[in-house]
Design brief:
Order of helices and strands: EHEEHEHHEHEH
CATH architecture: 3-Layer(aba) Sandwich
Largest sheet: 6 strands, mixed
CATH class: Alpha Beta
Number of domains: 1
Strand order of the largest sheet: 2-3-1-4-5-6
Oligomer: single chain
Shape: globular
Number of strands: 6
CATH topology: Rossmann fold
Distance between the termini: 17 Å
């Protein structure tokens, strides 16, 4: 199932993905183009392959990123501070505009860097989630690993077989791979 990670640059999308995939933390390399990785997980007594796309958050890559949003079964909205939290409505609009109206992805918010002082309180995050149909949110830390596996496990368990319509895009549907690097 196609899962995309979206959010501002430096919010920790790549680090969260690395923590989930390999239980490692590396904050040194920024994402300069969409990258893809997959992991098979057990959910609902079956095996689900999560095909995760880490979308570069820098302004100069935003026009390219839109082509990767289409047919996503789920999206992880990633933020880490007040500025990146305030930018989430932009990412939601971009995501929703790329989807057919009857196929909106499941949404989970990951507030990264919970090992640092919080800049947004829980009530404000909960209100944002309620207003924007975000199913669940977590304070996580890619650095320490806190709640990362739990959040990804919830995501996998929340997906239904009907969400898998665009599980593996055909070559005709797939975005150009010239920028894709497998983690």
């Amino acid at each position: 199932m196609k899962v995309i990670l979206v959010g501002e640059a430096n919010s920790g999308k790549s680090s969260l993905l690395m923590r989930f995939l390999r239980d490692r933390f590396d904050s040194s390399v920024p994402t300069v183009a969409p990258e893809c990785a997959s992991r098979t997980v057990e959910a609902h007594s079956s095996t689900i392959k999560l095909c995760m796309w880490d979308i570069a958050g820098q302004e100069r890559f935003r026009s390219v990123a839109k082509s990767y949003y289409r047919n996503a079964a789920a999206a992880l909205l990633v933020c880490c501070d007040r500025a990146s939290f305030n930018a989430l409505p932009y990412w939601l609009r971009e995501l929703q505009q790329a989807q057919p109206s009857d196929a909106q992805p499941r949404l989970v918010l990951l507030f990264n860097k919970c090992d640092e002082p919080a800049q947004v309180d829980d009530a404000e995050i909960a209100l944002f989630c309620a207003r924007h149909n975000v199913e669940r949110w977590y304070r996580v830390s890619a650095k320490t690993g806190e709640r990362v596996q739990e959040a990804f496990r919830y995501l996998a368990e929340s997906l239904r077989p009907s969400d898998a319509e665009a599980d593996e895009p055909s070559l005709e549907q797939a975005p150009p791979r010239r920028w894709c690097a497998v983690l």
